[in-house]
Amino acid sequence: MIFIIIGVALIALKLLGVNPMAEWNYELTGDLWKMVWPFVAALIWWAWSDASGWTRRREMERDDQRKAERRARNIANMGLGPKDGKGGQGRRR
Questions:
Q1: Spatial separation of the C-alpha atoms in residues 23 and 27, rounded to whole Å
Q2: Into how many domains does the chain fold?
Q3: Where in the sequence is the domain holding 75, given as residue range(s)?
């Protein structure tokens, strides 16, 4: 994501006329690579992270964390959790 932000910032600075980006030209033999490199880096990063399974592992870890939090919250709401001074097992009728 940071590569995309850098690329958009470079393009915005070029369009707003901020030096030195305003002096870059868009010819293939010129400074075009300076504007394109963040997007190429983002493509390489996404290809690597998808191929290596890194994004899938992070997604699974977030899902597991949400499941654990939801389970703990449901157990606490039913009054079945450990005694912690906030109800717990002592609230049975």
A1: 12
A2: 1
A3: 2-79
